[in-house]
Amino acid sequence: MRILHTSDWHLGRSFHREPLLAAQRLFIENLIDVVRHEHVDVVAVAGDIYDRAIPPLEAIDLFQRVLTQLAELKIPLVMISGNHDSPRRLGVNSRLIEHAGIHLRTDPHDVARPVLLQDEYGHVAFYGLPYLEPALVRESLDAPATSHQAVLGTAMDRVREDLATRPGTRAVVLAHAFVTGAEPSASERDITVGGVANVSAALFDGVDYVALGHLHRSQQISDRIRYSGSPLPYSFTEAGHPKSMWLVDLNGDGAVTARTIPCPEPYRLARLQGDLEDLLTQDKHADLEQAWLHVTLTDTSRPHMAMERLRQRFPHVLKLTHAATGPSADDLPSRERMESLTDHEIALDFLHHVTHTDATEPERDLLRRGIEHVRVTAQGETL
Q1: Which has the least CB within 10 A, 51, 267, 329, 372?
Q2: Can you say whether residue 125 is alpha, beta or left, with left for phi > 0 and alpha for psi between -120 and 50 degrees?
Q3: Residue 202 to residue 184: CA distance in whole angstroms
Q4: Which residue in 45, 97, 30 sits closest to 230, CA to CA?
């Protein structure tokens, strides 16, 4: 069975206020072409279909387009909700559209309800594990603790229990999580406070392939556990990292072979650093004149009208920082450091800025619990 593994479309997202819908439309068109030309049997999308719980209408239209095209091609689609999606909104009419081969898994209670597909070797069971917010699903899943490890482990136990009733059936799991050992980017939303979102790869023992979403870099944890990454770069930390999908062949004995399918590159990201006058005059930067740029100026003092002057040569400068002593994070304004910080770290940074003292351990814990409460409440409102 040939599987096209993709994730983290983030339909409706912008990049430093640049709209990306046209670029996302180009990706969707390419995906359909790949399905046709590579004779794909099933498309697996591992979460974060939309960029926010209530997406713009243009993003919904694009989503409907890909569903319609896959249904017309009679190519099954298995899709889960991610931490950016509203599970209830994404899952509207899911039971109805299953008749068209569109299988949405957004309900935690459906983790052990597989999509059963068949090839010449028998059945393949696709299990969809949507993003599981521990504080919201622990009780309903009867997990032993309020942690990502516990709730995802409980979900996988249910998967294995169901799979045990289907002898000879190969299994594919879709999950939206941060697996230990994977490399994140700056464009993923932190899914918990304190860095305890990681789960062990050992949780996925007993299945043939795991199609992961959440992290935006294409990578593999093992031969059978892979992240497809996002189809477009969504932060400057992803500059120079090719975007792709995984084309996975699942053999009759459960063995996996996979290769990457490049995604279109409708825009190029780059980082540029130096003295303003040098950047404006040096020929060696000519190849970056149409790139989307993050420019770091190293002038001793901040140049007057630097952005306006840069855009005369580089019309797509989207981010500008000034670091006279180099691009050290400690020297950058706090707004420029925020991409690499968690919400908890940002709050602690602000507290130190206004009080000129570090937070005490009780204060750190209070902030952690407050941020966690707000995050979980917001997530619960989208369910």
Answers
A1: 329
A2: beta
A3: 19
A4: 45
Beta strands in 115-264, from DSSP E residues, in sequence order: 115-119, 122-129, 170-176, 178-179, 198-199, 209-213, 219-222, 225-227, 244-250, 256-262
pLDDT in tens, 133-170: 999 999 999 999 999 999 999 999 999 999 999 999 99
* The two structure tokens encoding residue 177: 């999580």
CA 124 – CA 296 distance, rounded (Å): 51
Give the three-state DSSP class for 171.
strand
Query: What are the angstrom distances between the C-alpha of 316 and each of 98, 277, 296?
Result: 43, 18, 14
Cross-sheet strand order for the sheet of 292-297:
269-274, 292-297, 317-322
pLDDT of residue 302: 87
Contact (CB, 8 A) for 125 and 166: yes
Structure tokens at 90: 């994404």
Residue 142, judged by CB atoms within 10 A of its CB (0-12, 13-18, 19+), counts as exposed
In angstroms, the CA 124 to CA 76 distance is 12
Could you report the per-residue pLDDT of 322-359, keeping only the tens digit for each? 986 544 444 444 454 555 567 787 888 787 766 767 78
CA distance linking residue 174 with residue 164, whole number of Å? 18
Contact of 318 with 269, CB cutoff 8 Å: no
Q: Which of 141, 241, 196, 226 is nearest to 342 (CA)?
A: 196
Nearest to 184 by CA among 198, 172, 204, 169: 198
What is the C-alpha separation between 67 and 101, in angstroms, rounded? Answer: 9
DSSP string covering 302-330, please?
PPTTHHHHHHHH-TTEEEEEE-TT-S-GG
Predicted TM-score (pTM) of this structure? 0.84
* Largest interatomic CA distance in the chain: 71
284 Cβ contact partners less than 8 Å away, ≥ 6 residues apart: none
- Provide the angle, in degrees to the nearest 10, between the axes of the packed helices 361-381 and 343-355: 140
Q: Are 199 and 148 in contact (CB under 8 A)?
A: yes
Q: Which two tokens stand for residue 272?
A: 């540029």
329: region left, alpha or beta (phi > 0 left; psi from -120 to 50 alpha): alpha
